[in-house]
Design goal:
This protein has about 260 residues and is an alpha/beta fold. It has seven helices and seven strands. Helix 5 links the parallel strand 5 and strand 6. Pfam families: adh_short_C2. It comes from Enterococcus diestrammenae. Belongs to the short-chain dehydrogenases/reductases (SDR) family. This is Gluconate 5-dehydrogenase.
């Protein structure tokens, strides 16, 4: 039931980090993979490695904050593969600062990428899923959708707000599209090393020591440790699971 062989998986935000890891996991498990992101050179690098491993791969430039760009990319994927079975909405940004520090542009950047991006990708993928009466949508939220942090290095109020909005959108979509055999779920990663965190949080020894002390597993997440949950939500093993939020954080959100 974990089998996704032959399915078409679209990874939005696939050029690096957790998105690239997920694309490799999809390919390793037999899916055809479409990679979408703004940075074409990085997409090409990810695609080349997938193709060398024998994965049927398609890439298209996509700016998730621009509706025309998203519509063009999703349409191109469907034209290429003939269907879209899985949509992983992974594109995201984390803008640091409290509300007294954030500019309006900072706020809009968080909302446009983290929330509007999911809305737009889903807007154009969902009709294809409805027509085929099948679809799996996985939205990458964050544990910061449900918890916050008072340490200066981790204060990101626009990130908290945008990721909480992802949960509301996930529930609304799940309730509406279940009749079309489309499940919609969200994942909340804890701290993973990625392009978003490696030059900020992972460079603060004090923060890492504090995080590791508080985390029940005593460490951040490792590369690939999000993939099991992604594959679960992407496969028919989760056929009766929709509108749910699973945190993958080593237990950080329970302490």
């Amino acid at each position: 039931m974990f089998d996704i062989k032959g399915k078409v998986a679209v990874v939005v935000g696939a050029s690096s980090g957790l998105g690239a890891d997920a694309a490799r996991a999809y390919g390793k498990n037999g899916a055809k993979v479409a990679l979408l992101a703004r940075r074409e050179e990085k997409l090409a690098d990810v695609a080349r490695k997938l193709q060398e491993a024998g994965v049927d791969t398609f890439i298209h430039k996509c700016d998730v904050t621009d509706e025309t760009s998203v519509k063009t990319a999703i349409t191109a994927v469907h034209d290429h593969f003939g269907r879209i079975d899985i949509l992983l909405n992974n594109a995201g940004v984390a803008v640091r600062g409290g509300v007294h520090q954030l500019s309006e542009a900072d706020w809009d950047k968080s909302m446009d990428t983290n929330v509007k991006g999911i809305f737009l990708a889903s807007k154009y993928a969902v009709p294809y899923m409805m027509a085929q009466n099948y679809g799996k949508i996985i939205n990458i939220a964050s544990i910061n959708a449900v918890i916050a942090d008072k340490q200066d290095v981790f204060i990101r109020h626009s990130y908290n707000a945008s990721k909480a909005a992802v949960l509301g959108l996930t529930k609304g979509m799940a309730a509406s599209y279940g009749r079309y055999n489309i499940t919609v779920n969200a994942i909340g990663p804890g701290l993973f090393e990625s392009e978003m965190t490696e030059n900020t949080l992972f460079k603060s020894e004090d923060f890492l020591n504090s995080y590791n002390y508080q985390n029940p597993l005593g460490r951040p997440g490792k590369r690939g440790e999000l993939n099991g949950t992604i594959l679960y939500f992407s496969s028919d093993m989760s056929s009766y699971v929709s509108g749910q939020f699973i945190v993958v954080d080593g237990g950080m959100s329970i302490v």
